[in-house]
Amino acid sequence: IDVFLARSLLEKLYLFQYPIRPASMTYDDVTHLSAKIKPKQQKVELEMAIDTLNPNYCRSKGEQIALNVDGTCTDETSTYSSKLMDKQTFCSSQAASNVSRYAAAVYKKGELHLTPLHGILQLRPSFTYLDKADAKHREREAANEGGDSSQDEAEDDVKQITVRFSRPETEQARQRRVQSYEFLQKRQAEEHWVHLHYYGLKDSRSEHERQYLFSQGHGLAENTELIKSPSEYLMMLMPPSIEEENDKPMAPSNVLSMAQLRTLPLADQIKILMKNVKVMPFANLMSLLGSGTDSTAVLRCIQQVAMLVQGNWVVKSDVLYPKDTSSPHSGVPAEVLCRGRDFVMWKFTQDRWVVRKEVAAVTKLCPEDVKDFLEHMSVARINKGWEFMLPYDEDFVKKHPDIVQRQHMLWMGIQAKLEKVYNLLKEHLTPKKQEAQSAHPLLVSGEQRVNMAKAKVKQNYGQLEKEFQKQKAEMKSNDTSAKMDVSNIRIKEEPVSDDEPMDTSAYKGMNNGFVNGLHAEEDSTDSLNGRLPGGCIDRVAQELKAFVSSTFKKQFVLTLSELKRLFNLHLASLPPGHTLFSGISDKMLQDMVLDTGCKQILVPFPPQTAASPDELKVYALWEAGDTYDQHRQVLLEIFSKNYRVRRNVIQNQLSQECGEDLNKQEVDRVLK
């Protein structure tokens, strides 16, 4: 049998599946009163006449339904104008989401003609007329309740109206709204109906359209996709890969083979691997991704789904616990689980050991959830606690100091959030000492580095002197005229600096030799403490000035503590290798604030305040170039005399100093 592919009705042909009816009543006898379609949704609505003269039709029931729907009066809005249920509406629903494997076939004179189906729709009775009947019933009940006196009407005329302004919609709220059932229903209702004309089975137009089910041209050029050699047909029917897969045992649905994995995009491969393994060194990840994979692209993707802990990558909590999920043990929402797991990960950035009871006491989570967190990244040791499961990856830390620095900044931001949520005390921030751990300090101050460098210079001075004498003797033997002086030999010393490094008091006393992968060895990159190289001082100053200027134009008033927090977040958003990663001290930051036109406001805080020294240092933008400069300066002068001032005092002082009466809105704007 020759098979032909008909294209005339491509993407136009639908299959309608009607409800089953008695054999004595076929659809040829049913009259289609109207038809309409929503093309985008592939939704069809048909209105068909009911044969009221059929002996199976119950006339009394039809009259009762029409009376319930339309009431006693009949007009143009009535559903059943004949006071009898003489028609029925059918609505469609998609029978299959993928209809690419279905076609309509016509056999004629030894030829089989196939036309692909664009959709398969199942038609079911619509009962919207019952909703209309319920609405009529409620209206009648409301009318019979009586409560329509003139006094009630007068009271109804005077109503208190509350006006509310909607808040600006966040991106997350907008996504939830777009995915909601009400929004989807509204979108579907917005699409307009396209009215159709129905032609019966024996109509001439139907006869004409049915001819399009046959292929219009039998030439080979139009059906090349159906021309295959016998061997190609055999290969299509029995491919070798399918035969090999059938011989293998069936894998669970949640297991993905490496061959399937490597067909996915790189970001998806890394996410799936990290979600299953949870903790992995970078070298192991590269070996799993296969040869030829760009390590730079892998580093870019891995930071989106994992965090650096002790030089190894640990999958992020929000990847394991997505939104709108909960704990299988306690039913706690995903947000609380992510916070608790982040606390465990952060503890492992400080120490190789974590105590389960301490984690449970801080996070207030059930023991099963805490055990899950610890099993993701550590191993239980008897009488010791939980030890991080992988050794410290020193090779990765040395090769990628920019990534290490970026992750360090991210962990500082996470620590600040955890301190606010859990009210962490000093004993939680300072790790316990372990005898088996390394004695390397976590962060070395500038003075310690200078002393270490000087001691190293003294140790090597003798060797350097011998090399100099040897070089001098060689030059004499070669009869060279150039003379060298000992002063030409410069021995590298760490310069003594008065600049204090940025406050990292939360990390002092940690003794495992790393900070989120930042190893503190003598030959490691000095990216936190120490001076900037001379060649990049100008570039760093420009970048720092741009950050400070843009920040104060948005905020106007900041404490040093808040400014450092914003700067750390800014560093975390910068690409690896940026000039600002070379190291910025507190003094450099404060000097740059003063250089950009800001002033320090000496607010007289009470002596019993619990604020830190950085929170007591207040800086403000003195001149912003707008109309409120003078008002802000007066306000800052007021707060330099008292840290708490009444509003009427501020308004009177502004009016006296500026020579004009400010209204409430203007005062609010200056205060804000």
TrEMBL record:
Domain of life: Eukaryota
Name of the featured protein: RPC5 polymerase
Organism: Himantopus himantopus
Gene Ontology, cellular component aspect: RNA polymerase III complex
Location of region: Disordered: 134-157
Ranges for domain DNA-directed RNA polymerase III subunit RPC5 C-terminal: 432-672
Annotated gene: Polr3e
InterPro entries per record: RNA_pol_III_Rpc5, RPC5_C
Pfam family, one: RPC5
